[in-house]
Amino acid sequence: MAVIIECAVLASAGVVLAHSESGKPALSAPVPIVLANEEPPPIKPPTPEPKPEPRPTPKTPQPPQEAPVPVAPVPTAFTEPTPPPPPPPVAEASEARPSAEYMAKVNAAVKAAHSCPAAAVDLHYTGRVRVGFRLRDTTPSETRLLIASGFGLIDRAALQAVQNARYPEQPPEIRNSDYVYQVWIECN
User: Fold this and answer.
1) Is beta strand 127-136 parallel, antiparallel or unpaired with respect to 178-187?
2) Nearest-CA neighbor of 159 among 138, 187, 136?
3) 63-103 confidence digits (pLDDT tens)
4) DSSP E strands: which ranges in the chain?
5) CA angle 178, 180, 185 (to 5 degrees)
6) Is the residue at 91 inside a domain?
7) Structural domains of the chain, count
8) For the chain, which end, N or C, has fewer CB atoms within 10 Å of the first or last residue's CB respectively?
9) Exposure string (b/e) for 107-118, b if CB count within 10 Å is 16 or more?
10) CATH no. for residue 143?
C-alpha cells in the first residue's frame, strides 16, 4: 500500500512539474554573436539641409554724394611720436661739491650716533649696513637701506642713527644745497 501511495504522489508531482514548464516563457532572448574581425555596417553621414538662397534686395535711389574730404588722423599716444626728453642740465665747472673733509665729518656723525641694539649684542648678531640719505644743511631726508645686514634689529638701528646724528654745518660754498651721502655702519 505504501508503494502505491508513493507512486501516486510521484505521478502527480510529475504532471504538475511538466505543466508548469510548458506554460513558462523562455528565460532570455537569443543574443546575436558578432565576431571581432567583422566590420560594423557603415554609418551614413547626415545629409545637410539645403540653405535658402539669398534674395536680392531692391536698390533704392541714393542722393548724389560729394567727393570725400580727406580728414587728418587725430594724433594719439600710440600714433604720435613722443618728443625726446630734455637733456640733463649741464653742471658748471664752478659748481661746488662737498669736500672730502666735510664728507668725513658727516660719516663720523652718523657712526657716533649709532649703537648696536642690546638684543643683537645678547644674541651675538653682527652685521654691516650701508645706508643712503640726502642732507640739506643739517636735516637728513630720504633715508634708505642700500645694503641690508640680514637682521632687522641692526638695519633699523642704522636707519635710526642717520636720524639721530648731529651733523656739522655745511660749508658756505654748498649751503642750502642737498647732496646724497652713503655711510657704512658696522655692528660687532
Assistant:
1) antiparallel
2) 187
3) 666 666 666 666 555 555 556 666 665 544 446 788 889 99
4) 127-136, 139-147, 178-187
5) 135
6) no
7) 1
8) N
9) bebbeebbebbe
10) 3.30.2420.10
Residues of the chain with pLDDT under 70: 14-46, 48, 56-95
**Which residues fall within 8 angstroms of residue 181, CB to CB, at 6 or more apart?**
103, 106, 107, 132, 133, 134, 135
Q: Is residue 69 part of a domain?
A: no
Distance CA 147, CA 187 (A): 14
What does the chain come to in residues? 188
> Which residues 6+ apart lie within 8 Å of 185 measured at CB?
110, 111, 114, 128, 129, 130, 131, 158, 161
Q: How far is CA 107 from the centre of its chain?
A: 41
Domain that holds residue 149: 100-187
